[in-house]
What does this fold into?
Amino acid sequence: MSGVVVLLILCSTLATAGGFQLNEHGARAMGMGGAFAARASDLSAIYFNPAGLAFQKGRQVYVGVTLIAPSSTFYGPDQLNTNQETKMKSQVFNPINVYGSYRITDDLIVGFGVNNPYGLGTEWPADWSGRFISTKVNLETFFFSPTVAYKVSDRFSLGVGMNYVTGKVTLKRVLSDPFDPHANVTVEATGSSIGWNAGALYKATDNLSIGASYRSEAKIDAEGTATFEPNRSVYPAGDISSSLTLPATAFVGVAYSPFKNLTLEVNYQYVGWSSYKELALTFKKDNSVSVSPKNYENTYIIRVGGEYDLGDWQLRAGYIYDRSPAPTQYVEPLLPDANKNEVSAGVGYRISKNVTLDLAYMFIKFDQRKAVGTEINFDGTYNSTANLFALNFGYSF
Amino acid sequence: MKLMMKSLIVLTGLAALSLSGCSDSAPSGPVSSLGPVTIKKYVAVGNSLTAGYQSAGLYQSAQIYSYPNLIAQQLAKAGASLGTFEQPLYSDPGTPDATGKASRYEIISLAGPVIGPKGLTAGQPINSGLARPFDNLGIPGIPLAGFMDTTGTYQSAPLGRDAILRWTSGPFPKSVYRQAVALNPDLLTFWLGANDVLGYATSGGVSPAAPTPAAVFTTLYTQALSSIKTSLPNAKVIVGNIPDVKAIPFFRTVGPAVAAKIGPLGVKLYYQKAGESGMATGQSSLTEANAPLLTLTGMTYAAYIGQPSGLWYKANKYPALPAGIDTTKPFGLHPQNPWPNALVLDADEQVICANAISAFNSTIASVANANGAAVVDFYSFFNTVSQKGLTLAGEAFTTTYVTGGLFSLDGVHPSSRGSGVVANEYIKVINAKYSTSIPLVDISQIPGIPAPLGKISELSGLPVLPADAFRDYQRMFGTTDLK
It folds into this structure.
């Protein structure tokens, strides 16, 4: 388990779903485009649909990591009548997932999960034209999720979980003030919150199942510090506070086996991004407030995936259409969001009676995003892609 | 197992190919180019705004951010081969005041803050040996009449002028016009006329006692542009019109601060109206519509409001107090010790300024049109910025003194970043008129106003300026005496 601790410490994440949401919390689900809520048949059910736990073996662990390598290029700004190219700095993020379960009675099972459902990280060159907007941003969240599932009948189960959420955000940019030399401002804040989630799973027939789950929003009230380099007395260095509401999300899915060994699933995922209206920082030294409007909109993700079971081996593939919550005039270098088409492939292998291995790969193609009429007067075009690799081990006792 | 691995590889490869094959290429954005035109020589004609004069001085570290120099750099990025754009550089800390010390204001301390000349030894002209006229012919203090002048009036020493026009005879004598023509530019920017009203306005309507008459302005402007057209028939000419004096921080800083001081006391400011030198008849809370505008030069005196102060009369070396004045009365709050005429642009004077600017700008529009020149509408631009601010690449700019970022410490001239904004307004007009695609200046790469670091107290209230700080600066507008 020491490996897990190391992973927890090193973890950092980047948005791969719209906004700064992450939906890659298990290599098996990722291989199938995350279309998993109607089956939820491994411990990542704790994320996708807690009701799925009820139909699983009693004592298991499922542990994994996802490597995310995004790439983004900005062309512009249009305001300068230029098509100049600026590449985002390369980074690799590694969100983790750790799950365990324990059966209490035939019908009652408890589980515990740790993962990173929200995160983002972008870094731009220190001297670029957008340096007054952002040079670096990093958001990490951890969800600690004790979960319980109950098998109501052989075909119907319910699950519910609590989420203890911690978040840490770092924002860095050049300060917009009239003086020279310009100061770099770094804001770091941490906070926590409580949320909940619940799900239901209904196996209508032997080859048709239906699942739905909901995860509440979680408002993190964060405290931290602002550092100015170089500092001047006129700057509000010191304590700051902020709050960030992680949006609610819901899955509805249908899984169907047209013939033996093949299962297909479709999910509709709702994400309540309208909770992300602004990012406001309050500087306690002078009670000044810096407000950056975001005005995100509620959105959805369509997931289609399948798995072909060859006994010890399973082959998986999936496709995702992920609609961006960011309105055109709020697209910015902190998070150059766009509608996305994503494809995934994966393989599962039963190493021994008790041990499974899942591998997955995903490629994310962002639609070319033109930011026009932006609030911050920084229009241009963003081209982005991301490559994801995931690895999970499962062990059943 | 091998088969399985192969399957995985093939599957993954197919999935990736299906999308990576349609990875985006660079969007088809603007390509920097001069398009159909050729520009081999650019010359800028103007006044202190063109010279790169900032914070009451002409000095190299500001001149390199003069808008003509910035435009020249952008022209080069679009493919123009201009060679070196030559400017009459003056080494830091810049041009001397009447005592030989550098006149440039600096932020001496953010505590207060204290702004003013540091008493440094003035700099020197760097390249006055250039054997041809300068490409930047911005001459501090020059009115429109100075353009065709051949008497050498604007070659005299103050404000670094002697390092600009230089020759009194020979192939490039005296006049701005002759030197500009001698350079044979194919692009010429012409921004004159502001000093025809600014001297009147900044001296509170005292010295000079009136703006240039509108009819004279029209005659001079017509003469200037038609002469250029005759001498340089192929030159592309871009002219700038005259910003509203009320939009600049020089008139927007002291009034609101004084209003905040006297408002809670429930008292009004007594001020001398146009022509008054003794007892004052003007009275204002400084918050009403058309309230009198207090000049930045009044900053020092604002600190004495309510006190029995005669500082104004002492600083301006009055031989005796004017009739009716009693400096034992509270300054600014009593008709017998009023806010002085030279430090206020009252409602009538504001109308005189507005009428002059309106007449000048309508002349500029019609004469430019008649001569095929494009106009940069700085009047509208700065009024909009004054009302709404300006956001560029996430940075918020305003016309607020010091902290707004667009104006230098004298409250009249743009900062280096403000010059970038001015350059961009020119470039937009050039691009629109001549179908060029010149990239705009990246303001994010231009330095701000140098300010001290370290542990100092808050930036709050009105900056402190020495009473004499504006002396040299007023010479620019021909202001001789504020009595």
Q: What stands out?
A: Residues 3-396 of chain A form a domain with the Porin fold (CATH 2.40.160.60). The longest strand of chain A covers residues 184-205. Chain A has a mean pLDDT of 92.
